[in-house]
Write a structure and sequence with these properties.
about 450 residues; mainly alpha; Amino acid/polyamine transporter I; 20 helices; about 70% helix; about 0% strand; globular; disordered N terminus
């Protein structure tokens, strides 16, 4: 199958504002909020709240740029597609490669975090089971993905608000004794650094890992009803909900545990809950559900970016294959259509989803959480850097809520924060980008003129 023939398949628009917002919130309120507060506290010192707000401001600029682009280009692929439309094939490829590689590694990290919460001694087994389950749900269709996201995110939000409100009403520092100082999930227990501008920006980059799902719905743009209205509404609603939640948790948990104890905690939300007398299984269950919800949305988003890249010939064209689970095992046209010739109701990019699932399963066997937060943040900041540049190029097509200074500020901030992340993460991701660039150069050289 060639890229042109693969591109004939189209996905049906079935997601409304509530569905899209649920996917966005479910993508953000996942592994990040349960593990990132401690390393961010260590990097920022006593300026954690400043780092939370800086990360939120960066996320807002990126969200407005992404929403503007999605309203003009309502198609799958996110910044990969936007970069190609507005800047050219190479910037689009850099954005897509950063998203796919960084977020695939994040999927593995989330799965490992889930397994560690359930049973540390069998983390990889539980993580593998979670990846298989999430891939299966996504293969059932995007409306199933949205329904599952709504089902998963509501109890998590309830538990996190419960912990935050209770900690805010407790005596300052009274929860420090509840912290278990043994490092977990690949995170160190170093003491917090003195608050500096560099430390705040590095912490903001780490916190960006927790925010980075706000525009997940943009990668599902081909499946959103009335995308010019729904996508910006859902992006801003999801980001606003999550920022308010993170501010509540950052203020409440740092106040209740105290900064040194927070910085030493591998699981600050769980430790705060223990100190407050909230049953540990409740928080562990909420963590597992949140991570599962984020993993569900993230696998869907990565597969849609692969779909867009396959349509353009930047990755193997077979990754653009679309079918429903029923259509995949039945005779007939592929991509499948219903009696009216419209796309089959539950058609999904099954080849891309299976590819993502397989790679995540392989990474689960060898990965840990030590550097993956920075690794993922660097890749995604590059991705949104391209998105901001593309939004800057929109000119008169740019919606009112995204004046030109917003994407300009977003592009500069993404670059600065990306290169202030831990050096191991930066160097690793630069190597990954180099591999991708060489791959595309070879692919271009070998491509037949008929393609």
């Amino acid at each position: 199958m060639t890229a042109s023939s693969a591109s004939r398949g189209r996905l049906e628009r079935r997601l409304g504002p509530v569905d899209a917002t649920a996917i966005g919130v479910g993508s953000m309120v996942g592994a990040g909020v349960f593990v990132v507060l401690a390393p961010a506290a260590r990097a920022s010192g006593g300026l954690l709240l400043v780092a939370v707000l800086v990360a939120a401001g960066l996320a807002l600029a990126n969200a407005l740029s992404t929403a503007a682009l999605a309203s003009v280009h309502p198609t799958s692929g996110g910044a990969y597609a936007y970069g190609r439309h507005e800047l050219g094939a190479w910037p689009g490829f850099v954005a897509g490669w950063g998203f796919v590689t960084g977020k695939t590694a994040s999927c593995a990290a989330m799965a490992l975090a889930l397994g560690t919460y359930i049973q540390p001694g069998a983390a990889r087994l539980w993580a593998s089971a979670a990846v298989v389950a999430v891939t299966a749900v996504n293969l059932l269709g995007v409306t199933r993905t949205a329904a599952a996201a709504k089902l998963l995110v509501l109890p998590v939000l309830a538990v996190l608000v419960w912990v935050g409100a209770a900690a805010l009403g407790a005596d300052p520092g009274s929860g420090a004794s509840a912290v278990t100082t043994t490092p977990g999930l690949g995170l160190s227990s170093d003491a917090p650094a003195d608050g500096t501008v560099t430390g705040v920006l590095q912490a903001a980059g780490l916190l960006f890992f927790a925010y980075a799902g706000y525009a997940r719905v943009a990668t599902l743009g081909e499946e959103v009803r009335n995308p010019r209205r729904t996508i910006p509404l859902a992006v801003v609603a999801a980001l606003t909900t999550t920022v308010l939640l993170y501010l509540l948790l950052a203020v409440a948990v740092s106040r209740f545990l105290g900064l040194p104890a927070l910085a030493a905690s591998p699981a600050p939300v769980a430790d705060a809950a223990t100190g407050l007398g909230i049953p540990a299984p409740v928080v562990v269950a909420a963590a597992c559900v949140a991570i599962l919800g984020a993993l569900l949305s993230l696998v869907a988003g990565v597969s849609r970016t692969l779909l867009a890249m396959a349509r353009e010939g930047d990755v193997p064209a077979d990754l653009a294959r679309i079918a429903s689970l029923r259509g995949l095992f039945s005779p007939g046209p592929h991509p499948p259509v219903d009696a009216r010739g419209a796309p089959e109701r539950h058609a999904v990019p099954w080849a891309g989803q299976l590819a993502v699932g397989v790679v995540v399963l392989l990474l689960v066997q060898a990965g840990d959480l030590t550097t993956v937060i920075g690794f993922s943040s660097f890749g995604v900041l590059v991705y949104y850097g391209v998105a901001n540049l593309a939004a800057w190029r929109l000119g008169a097509r740019r919606p009112w809520y995204c004046p030109r200074w917003v994407p300009a500020l977003g592009a500069v901030a993404c670059t600065a924060v990306a290169f202030l992340l831990p050096s191991a993460s930066v160097l690793t991701m630069l190597g990954v980008f180099a591999v991708g660039i060489v791959y595309r150069l070879v692919r271009i050289a070998l491509r037949r003129p008929a393609d």
